[in-house]
């Protein structure tokens, strides 16, 4: 097991104050698995094409979700299964920010936290090596929070001229075994 988790490195002392449901998904264990439910909304044809290129989930209601997190000293590999659809990303700490790679798309976020939630705010974006003006993205953010003692997530992305690309929201609990 790594001595320090990615989120502990980025959030510093705020990590220790997180509620147990938030801390457990972001601790330094090498392998974790979570299950839950979520709702996914998507946009029009162009938005669906963008979502497909980035490996984002398609619109579904009350879909089962399974999340596996594999941690190394340098990064975390997240594999999300929305029903039968698989989405994966790699998270790395870069200059006290989270860098998330989704296929050719790389998003960098600043994190802020209090006991009951973590807020992701888009800092920069690039497609492969090509920087994308953040102003192109009207909204690309995530909130992690605690609902009824469970880990909750709310992730959305929208682009100027395209509208909503994806919005998924739900909950997870740790799956042992």
UniProtKB/TrEMBL annotation:
Residues 18-172 form the DUF4166 domain. It holds the Pfam family DUF4166. It comes from the Bacteria. This is DUF4166 domain-containing protein.
